[in-house]
Structures are given as C-alpha cells and as structure tokens.
Design goal:
heterodimer, A: 433 residues, alpha/beta, Rossmann fold, Pyruvate-ferredoxin Oxidoreductase, domain 3, 2 domains, six-stranded parallel sheet, six-stranded mixed sheet, 15 helices, B: 377 residues, five-stranded mixed sheet
Chain lengths: 433, 377
C-alpha cells in the first residue's frame, strides 16, 4: 500500500521529537491495514499533537483542547464504517478527563493515542496530569505537589477494553498501534515520548525520569487489558431496532359548542406526589374537549417528592395570553404546603370565588365560598385527591361537566388506571348528591 | 367546528418539530427546565433510525453534535443557563467550522445556577456574544408552544442554509407550560438541506471552506464520504489548513460575518400589531409578549393608540424593521424578562426617540398590569 502521508506537508516537529516517530508508525500501520485515506478520520485537539491531522491525507477533524473524543463519538456513531483515530497529548488527557473516562465506559470503536510527553510543550513546558513529581517544569514547584496520573490504571478502572502502554521509540510501535486500531471497541494507548523543545531542556536525564515512572506504574501492575464487551455502536443499533415508535401528537376535537363562555382561572395548591400537575392537565384536556383553550403553568421547587406543587390553569373560549393568575375564580386547596405558598391569594379571594378544600387541611380565613371534601370518606388516596376535587368541581356547573371530565380521562389514561379514575369520579359525584 | 387542538408544552413542540425537520441526531445533558426535550428526543429518534445520546457533560453533548453534523446529520442539543455557559467553546467551533446545528436554550433565572424552576430571559446577550471571535449568530425567540414548533423548523432550515449554529431562546415559562395549540397553527415548513458540493464540477481538490460562485456559504461534503474533508477550529483558509496569512484570514472571517449580516433584514421573523395612528410602540419578545398583548388589548378598549412589535428573530438584528417602526412613533417602550439586554440593541436604532425600559428578574412573569403601569405611569 502507499503511504497516506501528505507529501506537501511533512511532519514539522522539533528535531528529536518523538511525535514524528508516531506519525510515521501510524502511517505504517494504516498501510499494513490496507486502509485508504477516505476510510479514516483523524480527530485531534490542541497542542503539538494537534498538528497530526495535517500530515495525513485522510478525513480530518481538529477541535478544542481535550474535546477530540466528543467529536469522534458523534462522527463514529453517524459513520460506523469509518476508522476513527483520536490523537491527544497529555494536556488533552488532563483537560478532557471526563471524556476519556466516558469513552472507556462507553466502548465505542474509537482508538485514542495519547502522545504523552509529560508536559505542555507548545505553551512553554508547564506540568501536565502525567508529569513525574521529580521533574522540573515551567510550573515550578506546582508540578511537584501532585501525583502523576497512571492513565492505564484509570482506564482499566473505567472499563476500557483495550489498554496499552508503550515507549514512542519501541520498534513494535506500528504493530501495537495496529492492534489498537483493529480492536472492536474503545482502545487507549499511552505512548510515552520525549519533548526535546521543553522537557529535555529542564531535565538532564529525561529518559531516566520517565523510565523510573514507568517502572513504578508497572510495579503496581500495568493493566494490559484486552477484554471484549459489546461495542457501543453495535449495541446501540440493536436497541434501536427494538425501540417502539412513539405515539404521534393526539389532537383533541370538540364536537359541541364551547361549554362555558367565560374565562376561568383555576389554582391547584398541593404538594409533590399528589399528582397536581396531572390533575391540572386533565382539567385542561376536559376544557379542550369542550372547545375551550387552556394553559397550564406549573410551579414547584427542585426537590422531587418533597415541597409544594402548584398549577395555574386558565380555560377560555379565546386564545390565552398571560398564563399567570393573580385572582383565581376557583382554588383547589389540597395541602397546607401548597396553601402556605399562596395564603395571601386565599385571604384576598373575592366572595364570588370558590374554594374546594380537602376537609382535613387548614386554610386561612376567606370570604370565598367553601366546599369541603372529605377525601377519606371517598377513599381517595393522597395522590387521588386532586382528581376527587376535580370530580366535585363538575357538580358545581361552573366549568367542565362530568362528560368532558370522562373524555379527558379517556384521553390521558387507559386500562386499570382509567377504571380507577372513573370509579373515583363516580364516588365523588354521587357523594355530592 | 373549531380546528382540532393539541395539548403540549413548548419543549415537546420543539422536539416534535425537530423530528419533522429531519433531525437525526440529538445529544444532551439533563438540566431543568430543558430536560424534557432530551426525553422526547430519546423517544422520537431511536425508533426511527436516529441517534440520541446523553453526554457526560454539556461540552461533550455539543461535541457529539458537531461530529455528527460533520458526518452530514441534522443535529440538535438543548440546555439552560449553566449548560449554555459550558457550551461556549463548542459554539465558537460551530461558528468557526461553519457546522450546522440547532441549540435550544430553555432559559431559567440566572445569574449562575440561579433558580432551576424559575423563568427569565437571562441569556439573550450571552447567546449573541458567548463565543470567542464575536461573529454573528442567529437567535430566534418563541412566544408560545406554536412558535416553539414553527421556529424550530425555521432554525433547522437556517442552520442548513447558512451552515451556522441557530439558537432557540425559549424560557421555562414556555418550555414547561402546557397549552392548547390549534393544529393549523403548526406551520408545514418544508425541510431544507445544506447545499452539497458537486464532486463532478471540478478536477481541483475539494476546498471545504471555499464559497461557491453564487453563495457565501461553502458547499458541504460530509466527513466519512468518498472525498476527503477537513474540519478545523483553528484559523484556516478555504482548504481547511491552518494559515496566518492576513489576506486569507480577513477574507474568510469577513465572509463568515457577511453570510449572515447581508441577510439580516430578510431573516427578520416578527409579528406587528400596528395602529397607524399610534404614538407609542411597545417592543417585546419571548413569553413577555403574551402579557404585552393582553395589556395592549386592554388599552385599546380605552381608546389608547399604540402598536405592538413582537420580535422573533433577535439576531441578526432586524435593523430595517426596527428603524422603520421606531420612526413612526414618539415613545418606544421595551419590556424584557431580565434587567435590560435586548433594549441595548433597540437603542442603537432609535435615533432621537428615547427608549423606555422595564425589566424584572425575580422568577415571576411580568404581568399585563406591570406593563400597563409603564405605559400609563
């Protein structure tokens, strides 16, 4: 096979830089695998290693520092047949650490070659995540206070299926890169090299320093994990084949004239876990079955099964603008927690307004008309009370009737859930006489 | 008989519109109040052969989208304030690399992590300027669920046409507010695809950033196809290789600016409710427009003469529209759900006319009454 090196842009590294050996070994490896340029994408980030893509006649994607794996992930999932080689330095490894961990866990078929030369060469030789603490760098004592990262051990812990560590001057480099590239899954190679422009300038025996570090890592037991786990893209596509198509949006058609010509503002005051938002949606659906417009604005804290849950529903024969409610026509008071949030609204409620209240909760003094609902007697569990109050609301003639509520429930629920909801509505309505 | 209506929230409208527009790739990171867009895309894409991913963070999510878009797929992501902050470097890349992309910002109350479940139009200037280099972007602001649907369709078409990131500046109070949307309010917008490069047109190698004879937007070829494609975030010439030639850089960067700015007036999406006798012009965007509409309706019932301009295309700034409408009145009032972001743009085109401003950032919607007190102090 012919070389994929770009003859018009030969490698342009400092004399003696180990990066150049990796460029030539990668090219040899491509030739050995019989790949043509358009079967390969080289994805790089920032730093001297970021020049790699310009030396090859392949597809190329050069992006931000440490993010090469992110572009490669989107690219590989979109083009499963493409050989995607990701090149980063130890700088990219440090700043993009989260992406390295996730790539190990994900096991998408990418090959990450870390050109590890133990410092930030392009910016002046500062310490990186892999710098031995004994080394001297432009970061002064800062590099000596932190432990160097053993990326192979980290990758192993993160579930990588192919991990290899090699010196850039190892005669087997091209062959070993070839193994990483043909592994079906995520492969990570820690390729250790010397930075003559920076690291060698400050450290008289750079090779000795790196050999000592390498030995220390090996004593720990360098993981050379060549395991197999289903490749992410293949697994993803299998799951997609089984995925059920989602229901299209279901339109609601009204068969009658608008049920109630006035605009009504209804406030649900409850707590998380009471299915407040669901009940508010059912009211909206019922109103829409009656030919009305509806909006539902929710207010809740960031907690999940704790805290207030408030819904503001507006139903109107006209399109609705502002979705907030200052003076509600109807309040459904379902929990003291919810009531507490809008106690002023209850206190200032007009005499013409109506409050439906779960009988056991305490609400502030109000001039509004009150209907107390004994939810215990209705056998309405905590998460059914909002629906019980909605059912009572249908008996007041103020807004949606029982027929519209039934159609809303049929739109929202099915099977047992629907049966249960309809039975509760029936109990509530008959208790109202 | 009334037209059938859907009951959906703005976030679902965005997702449904994305699927309709041919979006084949979504990646996101869970964040209130944008999470449900991701959840909807996860339901919509995989069963129809698309791809939906959850990134390890927002930076990864947007990076995935960039890679997929460069492979030729229409891609979208969604987030809120803290995530849009993390997106910043990748947004710059999308601009520099001319990578089509739709980014939905369901805005919440800032600054910083702010309030996850409270609305605000916190990020308007961030969307415009939150990239290194300051090149223009497209920002579309919906008012309601139907806008979320229609503007998302437009956003995909604009991203494809101009090869750039397009933002939807939504808001918790639109994204998570359910409402009845008439079926016929959802426009049937024909999906457009990025212009491809005709590989038979020339013997010369493909230049990924060379404009065509009739457009400032470079024709696209995907990474992974027959022809070699180079993409780079670094300063480049038409061939996609790094360069420091001042002439080449000036030409390329000038072209990237001009490809949007030269279309600023025709890109203007807006709704004007004009009274030819109006002395007052109220300018709004986003969810605040809903309160403004109510307020204006009420004032007209009291025989007040005023016009309302609802701007959907916030960027590029619809200069001609703003100049023309402002010239017709003696008072301009801008209302925003922040402490004054877009008003700065209005002021630049208001000439001698003083621009009055009212804004609020406390997690509550601006009400029609509050707007009334600004118009009739």
């Amino acid at each position: 096979m012919t070389s994929l090196l770009n003859p018009s842009r030969p490698p342009f590294f400092c004399p003696g830089c180990s990066h150049e050996r990796v460029v030539r070994s990668l090219d040899k490896c491509f030739q050995h695998l019989g790949l043509s340029g358009n079967q390969i994408a080289i994805v790089t980030d920032i730093g001297c290693s970021g020049l790699f893509d310009t030396f090859f006649n392949t597809h190329a994607l050069h992006g931000l520092h440490g993010r090469a794996l992110t572009y490669a992930t989107g690219l590989k999932l979109a083009c499963p047949g493409l050989t995607v080689v990701v090149i980063m330095g130890d700088g990219g490894l440090g700043i993009g650490g989260a992406h390295v961990l996730s790539s190990c866990r994900r096991n998408l078929d990418l090959s990450l070659l870390i050109l590890n030369n133990f410092n930030y060469g392009m910016t002046g030789g500062q310490c990186s995540a892999t710098t031995p603490a004994e080394a001297s760098t432009a970061s002064g004592f800062l590099g000596q206070l932190e432990a160097p990262l053993d990326i192979c051990a980290v990758a192993d812990a993160a579930g990588a299926t192919w991990i290899d560590r090699i010196s850039a001057d190892d005669a087997a480099l091209a062959e070993r890169i070839g193994h990483a590239l043909t592994h079906n899954g995520f492969s990570l190679m820690d390729i250790m090299g010397i930075c003559p422009g920076r690291f060698s300038k400050r450290n008289r025996q750079p090779k000795k320093l790196i050999a000592a570090l390498s030995e220390r890592f090996e004593k720990r037991g360098t993981p050379e994990r060549h395991s197999s786990r289903e490749e992410y893209g293949e697994a993803y596509r299998k799951r997609c084949e089984q995925a059920q198509p989602v229901r299209p949006m279901r339109p609601i058609s009204c068969t009658s004239a608008p049920a109630e010509p006035a605009t009504l503002r209804i406030l649900f005051l409850g707590s998380a876990g009471q299915r407040i938002s669901t009940a508010a949606e059912i009211l909206c659906l019922a109103a829409m079955h009656g030919g009305l417009y509806a909006t539902q604005k929710n207010d809740y804290p960031i907690t999940v099964l704790r805290g207030h849950s408030i819904s503001e529903v507006i139903i109107s024969p006209f399109p609705i603008g502002f979705t907030g409610i200052k003076s509600p026509d109807i309040i459904l008071a379902l929990s003291e927690e919810g009531v507490e949030r809008r106690k002023d609204t209850i206190g200032s409620a007009a005499p013409s307004s109506l409050i439906l209240q779960v009988s056991e909760i305490v609400i502030p003094d109000t001039k509004a008309r009150l209907i107390r609902v004994d939810c215990t007697a209705l056998q309405a569990a905590k998460n059914q009370r909002a629906l019980a109050l909605l059912a009572m609301l249908t008996t007041t003639q103020l807004t949606v009737n029982a027929e519209l509520l039934r159609r809303a429930l049929e739109h929202k629920f099915k099977d047992d859930q629907l049966e249960e909801a309809l039975a509760l509505v029936e109990r509530a309505r008959s208790s109202a006489g | 008989m009334a037209t059938p209506r859907f009951f959906i929230d703005g976030n679902e409208a965005v997702a449904r519109a994305a699927a309709k527009s041919g979006c084949r790739f979504f990646a996101g990171y869970p964040i209130t109040p944008a999470t449900t867009i991701y959840q909807h895309m996860l339901s919509l894409l995989p069963p129809s052969g698309g791809i939906c991913l959850q990134g390890e963070d927002e930076i990864a999510s947007l990076g995935f989208c960039l890679g997929a878009s460069m492979a030729g797929l229409k891609a979208m992501t969604a987030t809120s304030g803290p995530g849009i902050s993390l997106f910043s470097e990748q947004i710059s890349f999308a601009i520099a690399g001319e990578i089509p992309l739709v980014i939905v910002d369901v805005q919440r109350l800032g600054p910083s992590t702010g309030s996850a479940t409270r609305g605000a139009d916190s990020d308007i200037q961030f969307l415009r300027w939150g990239n290194s280099g300051g090149l223009p972007v497209i920002v579309l602001a919906p008012v309601n669920g139907a806008d979320c649907y229609n503007l998302t369709c437009h956003a995909f078409n604009l991203a494809e046409t101009f090869r750039c990131p397009v933002f939807i500046a939504s808001n918790k109070e639109i994204g998570l507010t359910g409402e009845a949307i008439a079926e016929d309010a959802l426009a049937d917008i024909e999906p457009l695809n990025r212009a491809g490069y005709d590989t038979h047109q020339s013997e010369a190698p493909y230049q990924p950033f060379a404009p065509s004879a009739d457009s400032m937007v470079p024709p696209f070829l995907p990474i992974g196809g027959e022809v070699l494609v180079r993409q780079t975030s670094s300063s480049h010439g038409p061939d996609g290789f790094i360069t420091t030639s001042p002439e080449t850089l000036e030409q390329g960067i000038g072209r990237m600016r001009a490809k949007l700015i030269s279309h600023r007036n025709e890109l203007a999406l807006y709704r004007i409710d004009a009274d030819p006798e109006a002395e007052i012009l109220v300018i709004v965007y986003g969810v605040t427009a809903r309160a403004a509409e109510e307020c204006v309706r009420g004032l007209r019932e009291q025989s007040q003469r005023l016009s309302l301009l609802v701007v959907h295309t916030l960027y590029p700034i619809p200069e001609k529209l703003l100049r023309e409408e402002i010239a017709k009145v003696s008072r301009v009032i801008v209302i925003e759900m922040n402490l004054g972001q877009y008003v700065r743009e209005i002021e630049r085109f208001s000439g001698e006319t003083t621009v009055e401003f009212f804004g609020k950032m406390n997690g509550e919607l601006i009400s029609p009454d509050e707007i009334l007190r600004v118009i009739k102090p």
